[in-house]
Write a structure and sequence with these properties.
Layout lengths: L3 E3 L4 E3 L4 H25 L5 H24 L9 H4 L4 H23 L6 H15 L1
Antiparallel strand pairs: 1-2
Helix pairs in contact: 1-2, 1-4
Length: 133
């Protein structure tokens, strides 16, 4: 039986292979990169936070692709990380847990408004100040 954990914008499957979950994370990275590009074009005033967040996403995606390639995490043959961790289920479970956390973080990042709209920062700051008074 496969257990699905609902995430935005999709689902993360717990009982799938490392390769399947790596593929899911790559899709989540692409979605987040697309959201960054879309929001960058929607905002008139370009600011440093937008560019820094977009650069961080791009750098992290490149690092993830390098990690996946070096360890064979994306592969499905005998050189795959799944195959090499076959007898070390505790390590395989840990990698799957890290991938689940990464996927959740990417989905959360896609829904963050604070990095993209300076007015949202000001509005949130004003709300928190008024609630403390």
């Amino acid at each position: 039986m496969t257990l699905f954990i609902s995430l935005l914008p999709g689902y993360f499957v717990v009982n799938m292979s490392i390769a399947d979950n790596v593929s899911s994370c790559m899709g989540a990275f692409r979605n987040l990169k697309g959201a960054c590009l879309e929001r960058d074009t929607d905002i008139d005033e370009k600011n440093e936070a937008n560019r820094a967040f977009s650069k961080m996403v791009n750098d992290s995606f490149e690092r993830f692709q390098l990690w996946s390639s070096n360890l064979g995490a994306h592969r499905r043959d005998k050189t795959s990380l799944d195959h090499r961790l076959w007898e070390a289920s505790h390590l395989q479970d840990q990698v799957l847990e890290y991938l689940k956390d990464l996927h959740q973080g990417l989905a959360d990042g896609e829904s963050l408004e604070i990095f993209y709209k300076p007015q949202a920062i000001n509005k949130n700051a004003q709300q928190s100040l008024s609630s403390t008074e």
